[in-house]
Amino acid sequence: MSKIFKKLSSFQLILLGFATVILTGAFLLMLPVSTSSGEYASFSDSLFTSVSAVCVTGLVTQDTATYWSQFGQIVILLLIQVGGLGVVTAASAIAFIARRKINLRQRSTMQEAVSAQQVGGIVKFTGFIFKTTFLIELIGMLLLMPVFCKDFGFIKGLWYSVFHSISAFCNAGFDLLGVRTQFSSLTTYASSPLLNITIMLLIISGGLGFATWEDIRYHRHHIKKYRMQSKVIIVTTVVLLLIPMVYFYFFEFLNWEMSLSERLLASAFQAVTPRTAGFNTVNFTNMYQSSLCVIIILMLIGGSSGSTAGGMKTNTLAVLVSSAVSVFKRRDDINFFGRRIETDILHRAVAILMLYLSLFLTSGIAISRIDNLPLTDCLF
Prior knowledge:
By secondary structure, the chain is mostly helical. The protein contains 17 helices and two strands. It has two domains: about 180 residues, no CATH class; about 90 residues, no CATH class. The protein has a two-stranded antiparallel sheet. A hairpin with a 2-residue loop joins strand 1 and strand 2. Helix 10 runs parallel beside helix 13 and helix 15 packs across helix 16. It starts with a helix and ends with a helix.
């Protein structure tokens, strides 16, 4: 068996790791102890939930709060945590804690998993990822406790705080608020500033990427010392937050029956959450098609490289936009902050964009044929 693993590339090892975790999670969720009714869950529901949790997608076929038992919810939370950190990163963290030696090949796999720029210092960087994740999720839990403990009591409120802090930081979108209305997400807390702001900060923190957090840790407010990638991520993230927020405020929620504070919170939250998080504080079915189009674009973009979020990545978008600007200005090179971007990076960005668009359109066509619906309805 060890000889087989040695022949696998880093990409194949990462893929095998994800498949193993997903199948293990699906098996655990199929057990009677995982459902609130005590019955066996179907393989399709268990597999879908496991895939959604590990891939931090947030889509569900069964309401997380009412269908799954406490054990099932713990399994889902562990799958979210492993998926958010990355299977290789999580395994490396365990080896790091156990003080096991990590060879060069394992370090190379870790580099691929966390999108690190070099192999050197990868073990230390993995330790930083583990500590940063724990610290941010702990702070998020403490901030959410006043809200959930007030409504559900200390024990249940503590569990809700832990679950939603991890789910938000990992950009997973799973929630336990179906105890009020199934599949309601965070709509019952649309007017809660503390919960909205905390969840948004957790989502943004997870989506920035750990390399950016490393720059923030060492250089703090000296942004000029940041790596170029970190600068690009921060600028792109700010733009992707402000523009959709302004749009939602003036063109979507202006005519909704909301107070000024509720409209601001709803606009900000809906600008943050589509980029792979999956929570919502308003009913998306009541939104305009144009607003849903904005949400789809944000979902395609996703978070940043080396983050807990998925998607096409903000780095990719920045390279594509910068390339377009260079064409309009008739410049041969792509520049970020006075530094030239290699052509190979542009080629990768274009390939990633084409891959995502192909999957997006193919999925829409497949769903339209299955449900006999117009393609536009399936895409939106």
